[in-house]
TrEMBL record:
Residues 15-206 form the Ancillary SecYEG translocon subunit/Cell division coordinator CpoB TPR domain. Keywords: Cell membrane, Chaperone, Membrane, Transmembrane, Transmembrane helix. PANTHER family: ANCILLARY SECYEG TRANSLOCON SUBUNIT (PTHR38035:SF1), UPF0070 PROTEIN YFGM (PTHR38035). It is found in: Cell membrane; Membrane. Pfam families: TPR_21 (PF09976). It comes from Duganella levis. Its main location: membrane. It is a single-pass membrane protein. Transmembrane segments: none annotated. Signal peptide: none annotated. This is Tetratricopeptide repeat protein. The keyword Transmembrane applies. InterPro entries: SecYEG/CpoB_TPR (IPR018704), YfgM (IPR026039).
Amino acid sequence: MAYDLEEQEQIASLKAWWDKYGNASTWVLIAALAAYSGWTGWKYYERNQSGQASALYAELQSAVEAKDNAKVLRAAGDMESKFASTTYAPMAALVAAKSAFEANDLKSAKAQLQWAADHGADEFRAVAKIRLAGVLLDEKAYDEALKVLSGDVPAQFASAVADRKGDVLAAQNKLVEARAAYQAALDADKKNPGRQLIQLKLEAIGGTVPAEKGAA
């Protein structure tokens, strides 16, 4: 096919541009396509994982209703090994821990709570720590319980953590520290539904509950 002079000049310019930039442009395009493909693939993977985890969580709940602790623990183990990145995994661990505790399987209860404390998001981690410390308190593993309760937690759980610390310290007969922990629990959440119980515990170990502002 014959080209006129203007067309030939345009083709020559295109060839020159391609010789200089074409290879790099191709790699940029490939990278962009790969990134998009990876993103869509990941979103599909997430949806698929979430769907499977949801079905497994339903099985776990059925096992809980049947009071089949062994099946509950198996389902929780499958959830943690296969779907650890989903929200269902720490939820399953907390449910399994409760099932194990009620079955008097404290070893499994502690293991599930520890998994949730290690792998769950902040809220799940805080709940797991508080419950695990409660089990350790029952076992008189006081130092271990306090270690579990160390570290930062979301603000909405600060009162519950301080309250649990007070319980552990009171059990150790460290009354000054226990009173400080109970007071911290009261200060952290003025609307805590368990506030009256915390006040009773504080008074029981010689603490004084300050009068609320505006009280007669």
